[in-house]
Design a protein that fits this description.
heterotetramer, A mainly alpha, B mainly alpha, C mainly alpha, D alpha+beta, B: mainly alpha, 4 helices, about 75% helix, flat, C: mainly alpha
Chain lengths: ~575, ~100, ~200, ~220
């Protein structure tokens, strides 16, 4: 059956790859699988920088008067720069290249049955653009006045004039890095959409696409349509900083709230740009390890689209107390609450998919379920912030910090690690060590909660976020022990990644060879070799069924890959009988 | 993936139509400019000028960009962003135009 | 492999796949461009309402006649661009080259007039930092001019391809995609002109 | 929420806290149900116990009702939360009651300046008095603060009052509160405003009526000198 079909795929060489040397094959490759690995490497490097900065931030918050081991003391201006860079790096240079760049690039063509992205060279260009963006961002660390220090939201006028933060070119480079990053994902997003919509193989109708593809495509649409106003806003910000214009300066007739609106018009959808692919990974993993179809595939697709559309009409809930017209608050409260419904459907369907399953707790499944369990906390705490009245108290406090880490960490890291453990055999042709993976999960799960549950209480206690020292307020001093707990958690979380790094690097070189379909999964990427050769499919595959046909009654095997023709199925059946 | 299957729906030689549309575009430009000179209330003039601009844009989109022969997906790709940015503009009116609190 | 007998869902119901990939890509790109210019236009219109007539006052200093000429130039370049595609479809190489050449010439004329406008305005003392209107004026027309420039580069490459007798299907397809972009830039100007010059 | 929240000392603080509690109970219930189901399903349907899964796709209405009905219930509860929240929001932010005491608040990097009416009892006159980082108000009176900023966006945040309002340059944003208990409470800046953001601390000193009169007389006398 499928094994035989795919085995024939292996020997056919593609004129492009076999001619190319090392540079052509690994550096300026146009193969989506290589580009995906480049994205993965980039996001790993950036995650080390972003995660390392969280160590400095957490140490400073727990023991403000001490010098940070391995670094030295940091001042308030450095602290602001660190939180700015931590946010910018984690959202734009870790989450997006990881979930969209790496997994989207690797899996969309394979899952829809295409040989490569629709525009391979554009794909390479989008990677090298984000590479340039990352370089610019890292270069900003070495500017004389340091990197941008106005928060990852870059609120004006703080970011609008150098005098307010004392940062000159660091902030300009921050804008340029973001602009390049947006350009990169504009190219990438277009490529995703064309690949997912037009390069589907025969029989791969829209309603047979794996949910990860649906979610990546929705994320791409949401990104493409939401980033425009922020690009316009960033152009205005750069002009303000370099040409002396006054788009955001009230004394020149400008308005600081314009930036907030433009930023959050993008910023909220951006959360879904990151969250949806993370869910997509969990949704690929859960059916495989529960040996069950996803519960309510179609409604899940519609919910995804609904969440994508609704994400454009909720942005002002970030601005309830920003000084915008208070009459706007209640309509935006309602839309914010409405958007919880599609997400509730997605999460409940994930839980319902477990019912009646035969669940194997391999490491991808552990991370996927851990992601669902923790995202629920992020989801329900969002209701507090979505209610305008409670947001008066919660806005700008550590409650917000804990909330968005509880939404983004589960999708980016629990989802992302689930994806890595799941597709590592496909990507690198070797298996990872399961014991180390489980240790990694247990440490990550416990320490993550240990960091952010205390921070909810710091926020409820009234502590504003982004403050260098809690002890400058008498009313907050009693919250200090919570910060200490969180910092122990953060350090343990960072150390807890060591088993993963060891596991990854060791398995890369020495892991046992992976079979073509080690998890007995159905989607098309498992019907080709591990790792796949350059033209992914020797013969364009043909799709006959839905992506999650596990444990079909009467079938000999508990999985039926998408490309198994009905008559082949009959043959298997007869042989089994 | 070839273009030919898709473009078959489109009549072949359309150069005459393109000239015709161009004449309309020039006429509408003149119309827009003459509204600018008319002694009518500014609000009405602005409304008319943008009406004319919208008609011109529609002519270019439908004929030069062949939107009238396109799949509904292409319409969606154009219309959804227009709706989103109009929504953005409407939502910002109370803040930017009336400057709540100023 | 399986024969056609077991196709569970007929292939032709899925019309999206029949759109050429390049076309769908360029439209997605234009969709996000609509949001970029939409954001700028939104900001301009709202600030214009908020300015209590200051914008209209400043707008008296822009050279609306030059703007009108430029509109004519750009609309005409759209015509030559679409004619280039029309002639390419008719496999008339000489006229395709001529139309492409005219498009580029008209585009350069537009940029020339635009830079003359800029320099005379700057001589009159209107620079981006003069007032919010001028910030928008220079920002929006500058971004538009950058888009024009990008389009000119693409058209120039296409002209070179046409001069080198590139295959027809290549020329037809590229001319269509470059044309979509060029017409979009034209549409943007159709709105920018009344916004900045006439109101 | 004693112990977790700072003590509430404004007239509307209780309203906000009760909306918080309402949300806590509603989402807490659904949260616990979801987590319990998640863990129960995961443990109950483990491979060792259930060798072969049940094939159900949840693609008919009868099965999917298991998802849709809870979601509709959540939606109804959510709209209830919105209604309750709207009342509290309108009370705090939308309706400005007539003020007994008015103070202008000017935020700048990294200070709060509080400007009080001078002898003429009106703000904006030549004899206004400005104090740094100290807001004196009487208990049981409606205080209106007009917030403006000289440089960047700050945020006027008094946890005990349950009042937060961003201070935006170019705008004069009005907020109100009525304190129910005399005492000294802290004002924090809760919008990143530069390197001194963490130390942009102010105090709100709530006097009894008699104390307030005495303080005001002293202040005017000092200002006259």
């Amino acid at each position: 059956m499928s094994t035989a079909i795919a085995a024939s795929a292996a020997p056919i060489a593609h004129h492009e790859t076999h001619e190319a040397g090392f540079i052509g094959r690994y550096i300026f490759s146009v193969d989506h699988k290589v580009i995906a690995k480049q994205y993965l490497t980039l996001s790993a490097v950036m995650a080390l920088i972003g995660g390392g900065s969280s160590y400095l931030i957490r140490w400073q918050l727990a023991w403000p008067e001490t010098s940070i081991p391995g670094w030295g003391p940091i001042g308030p201006d450095q602290y602001n720069a660190l939180i700015t860079m931590h946010g910018t790096i984690m959202v734009f240079f870790v989450a997006m290249p990881f979930l969209l760049g790496a997994f989207g690039n690797y899996l969309i063509p394979l899952m829809v049955g295409a040989d490569d992205m629709a525009f391979p060279r554009l794909n390479a260009m989008s990677f090298w653009t984000i590479f340039a963006a990352s370089s610019v961002l890292i270069a900003s660390f070495f500017m004389p006045e340091g990197p941008a220090a106005s928060g990852w939201t870059g609120y004006v006028p703080l970011s609008d004039k150098a005098v307010y933060t004392g940062v000159g070119w660091g902030q300009n480079l921050w804008i340029i890095a973001l602009a390049l990053e947006f350009a990169s994902f504009l190219m990438g997003g277009v490529n995703f959409l064309v690949t997912g919509l037009n390069l589907r193989t025969r029989g791969m109708t829209l309603m047979r696409l794996p949910l990860l593809v649906w979610m990546e495509l929705t994320a791409a649409v949401v990104f493409l349509l939401s980033v425009g106003p922020l690009i316009a806003g960033a152009i205005m910000l750069l002009l303000d900083r370099t040409m002396g214009t006054g788009f955001y300066q009230p004394d020149k007739g400008g308005d600081p709230l314009l930036w907030e609106h433009l930023f959050w018009f993008f910023g909220h959808p951006e959360v879904y740009v990151v969250a949806l692919p993370g869910f997509g990974i969990m949704l690929e993993v859960i059916p495989v390890f529960a040996r069950k179809p996803i519960f309510g595939y179609k409604v899940m697709v519609y919910s995804t689209i609904a969440a994508g559309l609704l994400s454009f009409v909720v942005w002002a809930h970030h601005m309830f107390v920003s000084g915008m017209d208070p009459r706007l608050a209640s309509p935006f409260s309602v839309t914010t609450i409405l958007i919880s419904v599609p997400f509730a459907i997605i999460l409940f369907s994930m839980i319902a998919s477990l019912w009646g399953g035969s669940i194997r707790f391999a490491s991808p499944m552990l991370f996927a379920l851990g992601g669902v369990a923790t995202f629920l906390i992020g989801g329900v705490t969002g209701i507090f912030l979505g209610s305008a009245a409670v947001d008066i108290v919660m806005h700008g406090t550590y409650f917000v910090v804990a909330h968005f880490h509880y939404t983004l960490f589960p999708v980016v890291f629990f989802g992302g690690f689930a994806g890595i453990y799941f597709w590592f055999p496909k990507m690198f042709g070797r298996m990872m060590n399961e014991k180390l993976a489980q240790v990694h999960f247990v440490i990550t799960f416990i320490t993550f909660n240990m960091i952010f549950i205390p921070l909810f209480f710091v926020g409820l206690g009234g502590s504003p976020r982004r403050i260098y020292e809690l002890s400058s307020y008498d009313m907050l001093k009693h919250l200090q022990p919570l910060h200490v707990v969180a910092t122990y958690g953060a350090i343990a979380l960072l150390i807890g990644q060591v088993p993963f790094i060891i596991n990854f690097l060791y398995s890369l070189a020495r892991g046992p060879r992976a079979e073509q379909n080690p998890w007995h999964a159905n989607t098309l990427e498992w019907t080709v070799g591990s790792p796949p050769h350059h033209p992914n499919f020797a013969v364009p595959p043909r799709v006959y069924r839905d992506p999650y046909e596990y444990s079909v009654p009467g079938a000999a095997q508990d999985y039926i890959p998408q490309n198994v023709a009905p008559e082949e199925l009959v043959d298997i059946q007869l042989a089994a009988d | 993936m070839t273009d030919t299957t898709h473009d078959a729906a489109m009549p072949h030689n359309q150069n005459g139509l393109y000239f015709f549309i161009w004449i309309w575009l020039v006429v509408l430009l003149v119309v827009g400019l003459s509204i600018f000179g008319l002694p009518i209330p500014r609000v009405v003039a602005v409304g008319l000028i943008f009406g004319v601009a919208a008609v011109k844009a529609g002519l270019v989109l439908r004929n030069y960009m062949h939107l009238k022969h396109e799949h509904y997906l292409i319409y969606l790709i154009v219309l959804v962003p227009v709706l989103f940015f109009l929504g953005l503009a409407l939502t910002l009116i109370p803040d930017i135009v009336f400057r709540h609190g100023m | 492999m399986a024969a056609g007998a077991h196709v569970l869902i007929p292939e032709h119901d899925d019309t999206i796949r029949q759109i050429p990939p390049g076309k769908i890509a360029i439209w997605w790109f234009l969709g996000s461009e609509i949001m970029v210019f939409g954001g700028l236009i939104t900001a301009f219109v709202l600030f214009s309402f908020a300015s209590h007539g200051a914008f209209a006052e400043s707008a008296k200093h822009v050279h609306w006649k030059l703007g009108a000429i430029n509109t004519l130039v750009l609309v005409t370049s759209s015509l030559t661009m679409i004619l280039a595609l029309g002639y390419a479809r008719a496999h008339n190489l000489a006229r395709t080259r001529l139309c492409l050449f005219l498009t580029i010439a008209l585009g350069l004329t537009f940029l020339g007039i635009k830079s003359y406008e800029y320099s005379s305005e700057i001589h009159e003392g209107f620079v981006p930092s003069t007032s919010l209107f001028w910030s928008f004026y220079f920002g929006m027309t500058g971004l538009h001019a950058l888009h024009m420039f990008g389009g000119l580069v693409v058209n120039g490459l296409l002209l070179i391809a046409a001069l080198r007798k590139a295959p027809w299907d290549f020329l037809e397809r590229r001319l269509e995609f470059a044309g979509l972009y060029w017409h979009f830039v034209d549409v943007v100007w159709i709105f920018l002109f009344p916004l900045l010059y006439l109101t | 929420m004693g112990g977790i929240f700072p003590e509430s000392v404004s007239t509307f603080g209780g309203e906000i806290d009760s909306v918080f509690r309402l949300i806590l109970y509603v989402v807490g219930f659904f949260f616990i149900v979801s987590e319990v189901l998640l863990v129960y399903f995961a443990v109950h349907y483990r491979r060792g116990r259930v060798p072969r899964a049940i094939y159900n796709r949840g693609d008919n209405v009868r099965e999917f009702a298991w998802i849709i009905v809870p979601c509709l219930i959540i939606l109804i509860f959510d709209l209830g939360i919105d209604a309750a929240g709207h009342r509290a929001w309108a009370l705090v932010k939308e309706n400005q009651p007539p003020a007994d005491v008015i103070v202008n608040v000017t935020a700048k990097q990294f200070n709060w300046n509080f400007t009080y009416p001078g002898k003429d009892g009106k703000l904006g006159g030549p004899n206004d008095v400005t104090l740094e980082n100290e807001l004196h108000v009487p208990v049981g009176k409606i205080v209106r603060v007009t917030l403006s900023s000289q440089d960047v966006i700050h945020s006027f945040w008094v946890p005990n009052l349950r009042l937060k309002q961003d201070v935006v340059p170019g705008r004069r944003i009005v907020a109100w509160f009525e304190v129910t208990r005399p005492g000294t409470y802290e004002i924090a800046c809760s919008e990143l405003c530069g390197f001194g953001h963490y130390s942009m601390r102010g105090q709100i000193i709530v006097h009894t009526a008699a104390d307030y009169a005495r303080w005001r007389a002293d202040m005017l006398a000092n200002a006259g000198k």
